[in-house]
TrEMBL record:
One of its GO terms (cellular component) is plasma membrane. Keywords: Cell membrane, Membrane, Transmembrane, Transmembrane helix, Transport. This is Transmembrane protein. It comes from Mycoavidus cysteinexigens. It comes from the Bacteria. It holds the Pfam family BPD_transp_1. The keyword Transmembrane applies. It is found in: Cell membrane. It is a multi-pass membrane protein.
Length: 213
């Protein structure tokens, strides 16, 4: 059972890590676009902002268990199967990206508008404003948002495991619930709690380091 728990934890770590990374790679640019294209943004484009915002809100408002089922054809197209750890990464990434996008948008909105105006007055390009003003100032908030996303993905990964995604959720359902082994369920919950605590503590530490100016 110990080896099974270790293998399942590795699968959970893979699901959360890869989907978190892919979600950040997709979500951070989306969040920047949302911020830039807003009415008071650097490059206002209300049509783009509203369309992108609608799509992001639609995905965020969809319960994850429904999203898992809805993207099965797309998952099969990408990885050739709708069952397993790799297959679970697809809906996890789709769920993570819009979440990250909104958190990044919020973090960018907290940047002092005076810094942006000063950069524009000095003739900085949009790319320079993003890379040298917005992102450096917003990094603590962005890292905090990514930490929250990773913690959420831990719970989502357990839900994915319940329908064949592997990981600790699969072990908890198959052994803890279906075979009436409460000690296995407690072990799964304990591992997830410790994992979440480590992720949150690591994220908080990184935020504090980045906040020291």
């Amino acid at each position: 059972m110990l080896s099974l728990l270790l293998l399942s934890f590795e699968e959970t770590l893979l699901m959360v890590g890869v989907s978190g990374l892919l979600g950040a790679l997709l979500g951070v640019p989306l969040g920047i676009i949302l911020y830039l294209s807003a009415r008071d943004g650097v490059l206002p484009n209300l049509a783009l902002n509203h369309i992108l915002g609608f799509v992001i809100n639609a995905i965020r408002s969809t319960p994850f268990i429904i999203l898992l089922v809805a993207v099965i054809p797309f998952t099969r197209l990408l990885v050739g199967s709708s069952i397993g750890t790799l297959a679970a990464i697809v809906p996890l990434t789709i769920a993570a990206a819009p979440f990250v996008a909104r958190l990044v948008e919020v973090a960018l909105r907290e940047v002092d508008a005076g810094l942006i105006e000063a950069a524009q007055a000095m003739g900085a390009s949009t790319r320079q404003i993003i890379c040298k003003v917005l992102l450096p100032e917003a990094w603590p908030g962005i890292i905090a948002g990514l930490t929250v996303t990773l913690v959420s993905l831990v719970g989502y990964s357990a839900m994915a495991g319940a329908i064949g995604g592997g990981g600790l959720g699969d072990v908890g359902i198959r052994y803890g619930y279906q075979r009436f082994l409460p000690e296995v369920m407690l072990a799964v919950v304990g591992i997830l709690v410790v994992f979440v605590q480590l992720v949150q503590s690591g994220g908080d530490w990184l935020v504090r380091r980045l906040s020291h100016k």
